[in-house]
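Anyone able to model this chain together with pyridoxal-5'-phosphate?
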Amino acid sequence: MPYTKLAHAGCDVDPITGALTPPVHFATTYEREPDGSYPKEYVYARWANPTRRLLETTLADLEGGADARAFASGMAAVQAILQCLAPGDHVILPDDVYHGVRSLFRTFFGDWGLTWTEVDQTDLDAVASAFRPETKLLWAETPSNPLVKITDLAGLAALGKAHGVPLIVDGTWTTPVLQRPLDLGADFVLHSLTKYIAGHSDVLAGGLVTADETHPIWTRIQALTMGAGAVADPFSSWLTLRGMRSLGARMRMHCSNARHVADFLAQHPNVTAVYYPGLPAHPGHDIARRQMTDFGGMLSFEVAGTETDALAVTGRVQVFTRATSLGGTESLIEHRASIESKPTTTPVTLIRLSIGL
Ligand code: PLP
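re: yes, here you go
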C-alpha cells in the first residue's frame, strides 16, 4: 500500500482558497443553468454530494477499483448489495460471517425469498459443492469474525469465475492497507468504514467498491443509492476522509501491538487457544502471509474453564474497555457470544480483542 497516497488521501490543494484539506459540503440542492442543465454534475444530495463523492473516489482508488459508493453504515452497504438480488436467488456465506450479516438474512432477506448456505470457506472443496444454479453471490470475510479463519481469496475468486458468480469480500478487518481483494480477483469489496478506515470510534459509515462499473449489480447499486438514499452524510464522509490519512500509520501499530498480545496469550497457561493469523501455528498463516501485507489488529482467544471464567476475565481488565466494535485507537475486549444473535458458532469461552494504539 502506498503510504504516501494514504497520507494525502482526498487532499488536493483547493484551487480557489489554497486550503490543504477539503471543505464539507452540506448543500442538499444545486443551481440549474438557464437552459435547465446541470453542467457542474451535482443536482441533489441524495444523488451525489461533493464530500461523499470525494470519499467514494478516494476509497475506489485505494482499493484499485473502478468506482465506489459510501453508505450510512456498513450494514446499509450490506443491505444494498443484497437488495440487488431477486427473490429465489442463493448466496454462499462463510460459516463465521459477521453476525449482523447472518442476522439480516434470518430476520429479513429469508422472508424476502433469498436462500443461503453457510460454508467453512477454509475448505474450497466445500465451497465448490455449495454452488447451485440459482447462486448469485459468493460472500467472503477473511480474517473471519470472530474465529479469525483465513480464506484463500484467489482460490475463492477462481471458483466464483468458474460458476459465473461474483465474489464480494468484506474488507472491514483488513482495509486496503493489509489486503486488496480486487487484485486477487474479487468483484466487490465491502467496508464498515466505521472501524479502521475512519478509525476513531466516532463515525458510522459504510462503503462498496466495484472492480467494474458496468457490472449489472453496480448499475443497480447506483440506482439504489440515488433512489433510496441510505448514503453517508457529508460530515461522516469528511471525518472518514480525515481518518484515512493516518490509516497507514495506524495499521502498522495495530498490527505490531496485536502481535505482542498474541505472543503473550499463546504462552499463557490459562489460555487454551489463540486465533491470530500472525502466529505460525495458525492454520491459515501461510495463506495470510501470501495475501495480506500484515496480520491485523484483531484477535480472539479462549480461556480455560467456562463462560463464567471468560466473563470474569473481561470483568478484570484495566486498560481495555469492555465494548463491542473495533478499529479505534483504544483497545476493546468483548465476550463475543453474548453480543451475537443466537444461535451462534462462537464458543462461550471466546474473548475478542481489538488492539488499539
Ligand atoms: N462487517 C464487519 C466485519 C463488521 O465487523 C461490521 C460491524 O461490526 C459490519 C460489517 C457492519 O458495519 P456497521 O456497524 O458500520 O454497520
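The longest strand covers residues 135-141.
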